């Protein structure tokens, strides 16, 4: 994987992560469920790196798109750390640069992506 692209993706991910964390806390606070607003207070006192572990199954991810995105971004950043970023999760080939530029959390190459969509 090209060093420049990797750096760009890393910056993009870090930037988006910071925004998503703020939006996600807002989502929790504005939710009508009291358990959810308590969770927001708890998370504000927790290191953001531990959020996903702390949340565990306390919320339903489908109700919180920002949470789903947070998990995706953290997974991609973890892949960068372990040197597995940019490889397709199905065929293990390199993911096309244009896909990573569009969305650095992309997990599949073009051909596997279209196969996966057909199965849905
Ligand atoms: Zn693939």
From TrEMBL:
InterPro entries: Znf_DskA_TraR (IPR000962). Residues 83-115 form the Zinc finger DksA/TraR C4-type domain. GO terms for molecular function: zinc ion binding. Keywords: Metal-binding, Zinc, Zinc-finger. A zinc finger (dksA C4-type) spans 88-112. PROSITE patterns: ZF_DKSA_2 (PS51128). The keyword Zinc-finger applies. It comes from the Bacteria. Gene3D superfamilies: DksA, coiled-coil domain. This is Zinc finger DksA/TraR C4-type domain-containing protein. It comes from Pseudoalteromonas luteoviolacea DSM 6061. The lineage of its organism: Bacteria, Pseudomonadati, Pseudomonadota, Gammaproteobacteria, Alteromonadales.
